Amino acid sequence: MKLFRCSINQVRKVLEGVITGIDLGVVSMVDELKGLLPKMEKVYDISYRHEVLGESVANREKIFSIYEEHTDIIVKGSREVEFGHKVNLTDGEE
């Protein structure tokens, strides 16, 4: 948890411009970090609540993929839980 908090703080410093000397070649990475920072904070919060405070975090609050937000838990009967994308396919007469 300490290492993850340090990483989040480093990302925040980069985005706030505290760390200087950023090469223009990494500008696209900085843009990506802007989108990832809120997710990093949420993952940290969920982990802290579960591991440190001992809370049971509801699945609706959890992040299953930081890159694909629509990833969800797929439960099919008594089989193992899978992670993926839900697709609803229908078949009709037309």
What do you see in this structure?
By secondary structure, the protein is mainly alpha-helical. The chain has one domain (2-84). The protein is built from 2 helices and 2 strands. It has helices spanning 2-16, 27-52; strands spanning 72-74, 82-84. It has a two-stranded antiparallel sheet with strand order 1-2. A hairpin with a 7-residue loop joins strand 1 (72-74) and strand 2. The longest helix is centred in the middle third of the chain and has 26 residues, at 27-52. It starts with a helix and ends in a 10-residue tail after the last strand.
Helix-strand blueprint:
Blueprint: H1 2-16, H2 27-52, E1 72-74, E2 82-84
Helix pairs in contact: 1-2
Task: Provide tags for this entry.
6% strand; 94 residues; mainly alpha
Radius of gyration: 19 Å
- In percent, how helical is the residue content? 40-55%
List the uncertain runs. Answer: none
Please give the domain count.
1
SSE topology string: HHEE
Separation of the first and last Cα atoms: 55 Å
The computed structural class is mainly alpha
Shape: flat
